[in-house]
Automatic annotation (TrEMBL):
Residues 1-22, 119-203 are annotated as: Disordered. The lineage of its organism: Eukaryota, Metazoa, Chordata, Craniata, Vertebrata. InterPro entries: SGNH_hydro_sf. The keyword 4Fe-4S does not apply. Residues 26-100 form a coiled coil. The keyword Repeat does not apply. Residues 140-152, 168-190 have a biased composition (Polar residues). This is Scavenger receptor cysteine-rich type 1 M130. Keywords: Coiled coil. Residues 125-139, 153-167 have a biased composition (Low complexity). It comes from the Eukaryota.
């Protein structure tokens, strides 16, 4: 059995409340907490007020900035719209001017054609009457000069008769029937002259249209010195793509020659196949203008590209263009890096070497390094030999007596051209021909030097 424990007396709640009095520390702590709560509430309200004020200021400032930005964007849009309208008007004006330019070119071509036709008709209409008119004029000149200089005319007739007896051969004497045939052929020329004039005019009109598509190296080419007397148009094409676009637009008209020099700038970009691009340009030119003579200029050297690469490209282009009809290659093998004044552009001496093969291919003239002067003078239309031949024909045709008795034509073989650097002189060979020299000097205005005493 467990032992019983003693029972303690129980206390009432009032006795407990009376028995535990509040300490002053607890009261002080409670007062501090109440004050802290009040301070915290005041701090909270002040902080909230400050935040609201800052938010209001910030939002107002941002709204103003947004409004200003919106107004600025609106002004920019208006300006952009005005600029677009201005650009549209400029494009329309350029289009109208281009159309007007094409119209003027077409009218100019028609005017040239009409002018050629009128000139041909005038030449055909005046040619049958030219020889009788000139004959009568010379006869009048001879008849008017004989009364004033009777002594000289007598001496001249005597010299002419002696010369005709001594120098005439049977082959030069003609029968009256032959003389009539000769006069009939002179009065009535063959009818094929008009067709020949027409064909020559058309060929000359086609020859006058030369188009040059070139980059900056061809900028210093002078068309007036390169092709004198021809109509030359030069277009700036820095790349092969620009040349191809110009050909596809059909802005070249009806050219007879198309000279292409581009592709040098394409060598700086590795993404462009220069051989393929230039071949495409040549094929397009040959397809769109089948009657034009296409001349493709080879690539010039660059300091920043190895020369073997440029040579390989030129060889490939030459091999491809060999199978295309009416396409020619202008090689510039004489131009080296010494002819460049920078890494890509050629100087004046290089420009002469650059223009030489282009001009030779365009004009179909053979290239000669040192042509003979006498050979070149003999080929010129205005050379001394041609002048002498024309003078001989005039003397043979119009030299006759004042009374019309002497009708034979003199075969003057003693007048020859003396090639001189300063003056044109005609030399007579023989002592007994002084009288005839005086007559030629007076009537034909020729400068004669008598040889012998």
């Amino acid at each position: 059995m467990r032992p019983e424990q003693p029972q303690l007396p129980s206390l009432t709640p009032a006795q407990e409340h009376v028995g535990t009095p509040a300490s002053p520390k607890i009261k002080a702590l409670r007062d501090n907490i109440a004050e802290l709560e009040q301070d915290f509430f005041l701090f909270k309200e002040e902080t909230n007020n400050n935040l609201h004020q800052l938010l209001n200021l910030t939002s107002h400032h941002s709204v103003q900035q947004l409004q200003q930005l919106c107004s600025a964007v609106r002004h920019l849009e208006e300006d952009n719209q005005e600029l677009r309208q201005e650009l549209r008007r400029v494009r329309e004006e350029l289009t109208r001017r281009e159309q007007h330019g094409h119209t003027l070119e077409r009218l100019l071509e028609e005017t040239r054609t009409q002018l050629h036709t009128i000139q041909q008709q005038q030449c055909v209409s005046t040619q049958p009457h030219s020889s009788p008119t000139t004959t009568t004029q010379h006869q009048r000149c001879v008849s008017s000069q004989t009364p004033s200089t009777s002594t000289n005319s007598a001496q001249q007739q005597q010299c002419v008769s002696t010369q005709s007896q001594s120098s005439f051969t049977p082959a030069t004497r003609q029968s009256p029937q032959a003389h009539q045939n000769l006069s009939s052929t002179q009065i009535h020329p063959p009818t094929t002259t008009s067709s020949s004039f027409t064909s020559n005019g058309r060929e000359q009109e086609r020859k006058d249209n030369i188009v040059i598509l070139c980059d900056s190296n061809g900028h210093h080419l002078d068309p007036r010195r390169l092709f004198p007397g021809r109509s030359v148009k030069k277009f700036w094409c820095p790349t092969s793509h620009s040349a191809l676009r110009l050909l596809q637009e059909g802005a070249l008209g009806a050219p007879s020659h198309i000279i292409i020099h581009t592709g040098t700038n394409d060598l700086s970009t590795r993404r462009v196949d220069v051989t393929k691009a230039l071949t495409n340009v040549v094929r397009t030119a040959s397809r769109i203008y089948p009657r034009a003579k296409v001349i493709i200029s080879s690539l010039l050297p660059r300091r920043d590209v190895p020369q073997r690469i440029i040579n390989n490209i030129n060889v490939e282009i030459a091999n491809i263009c060999a199978s295309i009809p009416n396409v020619h290659i202008a090689n510039h093998q004489q131009i080296t890096h010494q002819h460049l004044y920078d890494h890509i552009h050629i100087h004046r001496e290089g420009m002469r070497l650059f223009a030489k093969p282009i001009k030779a291919l365009t004009l179909n003239s053979p290239q000669k390094t040192h042509p003979d002067r006498e050979e070149r003078a003999g080929q010129l239309p205005g050379s001394y030999a041609a002048v002498a031949a024309r003078r001989d024909r005039r003397v043979n045709k119009h030299l006759c007596g004042s009374s019309g008795v002497i009708r034979a034509r003199l075969n003057i073989l003693f007048v020859s051209a003396c090639l001189s650097r300063s003056t044109r002189r005609f030399v007579t060979l023989g002592k007994e021909k002084r009288c005839l020299c005086l007559w030629i000097n007076r009537n034909l205005g020729m400068r004669v030097r008598r040889s012998g005493t």
